[in-house]
Amino acid sequence: MLSLPEIKQLLTDRQLNVVAERVGIHSNTIYRLMKTEKADYDTIKKLSDYLEGQLENAKQ
After folding, report:
1. What's the burial of 7, exposed, middle or buried (CB within 10 Å: 0-12/13-18/19+)?
2. What is the residue-level pLDDT of the chain in tens, covering all 60 positions?
3. Neighbours of 1 (CB within 10 A)
4. Which end of the chain is less enclosed by CB atoms within 10 A, N or C?
5. Is 24 left (phi over 0), alpha (psi -120 to 50) or beta?
6. CA 15 to CA 54: how far, in whole Å?
7. Distant-in-sequence, close-in-space partners of 26: CB < 8 Å, separation ≥ 6
8. Contact at 8 Å (CB) between 50 and 4?
């Protein structure tokens, strides 16, 4: 599972509203996460799973 700083770094060049829709969380949740160091475990887990899947696909 990716750490919160790693998630934030990987999200910097993405359209956050698209990521939110694909992950199934509200876009405001991601915007708040980007501004603070706070997020609940479920949010971090969903984003980590999504981003790790994206990284895996990029390697292939």
Report:
1. buried
2. 999 999 999 999 999 999 999 999 999 999 999 999 789 999 999 999 999 998 887 777
3. 11
4. C
5. left
6. 14
7. 20
8. no
pTM > 0.70: yes
Burial of 29 (0-12, 13-18, 19+ CB in 10 A): middle
Q: What is the identity of the amino acid at 3? A: S
Q: Which amino acid is at 14?
A: R
CA angle at 34 for the pair 31 and 36, rounded to the nearest 5°: 110
- In this structure, which amino acid lies at residue 11? L
